[in-house]
Amino acid sequence: MSVKVREYKKRGRSGWEVDIMFKWPDGELYRERVKAPVGSKSGAKTWGEQRQSELLSRGRKAVEKKAMPMLKEFAPRHLDEGARANRQKPSTIIQKKRILDFYLLPRFGELRLDAITNAEVAKLKAELVDRSPKTVNNVLVVLNTVLKTALKWGVIEQMPATIELLKVAPATMEFYEPHEFERLVEAAAKVDH
Q1: For residue 187, is pLDDT > 80?
Q2: Average pLDDT over residues 79-106
Q3: 95-107 burial by CB neighbour count: b if 16+ within 10 A, else e?
């Protein structure tokens, strides 16, 4: 049985990865590599040891039953068994795939579905600060739909994050004043029939 801690740095993020390895009572090897939810190396080591004893106490069937897919593994299933099976329009499916490929998978693809927390969603919003609120909301709606589908299908037990959309200013319509409209019609009549 061993718990090893390594520092990781990916896409500008850093932290500690815990590598847990042990043998079940029947002799089969079990290995789990996860990002520790703590910021220090010693804290990650302690968390890993607690996780290892929790896994051993819960037993093999409970651990195997709870294998949580990463977003990159679940996204194609969501598109095929969710969007296509429910006969969404092809343009909607294409747009969802683009949002997944361009915004969500680069950011959350390596995360398990239950690891997409409120903090991760806040980081996503911060990364998209230069995009329009409508674009950000489209990305958030796709993420929310994927998580709700996973919840509905029993892949996750509860929503890992509460996704709040940005406020979008209502569209304003501009009208010509009656005297402006008359001038426009007169000018148009002079130019062409």
Answers
A1: yes
A2: 90
A3: ebbebbeebbbeb
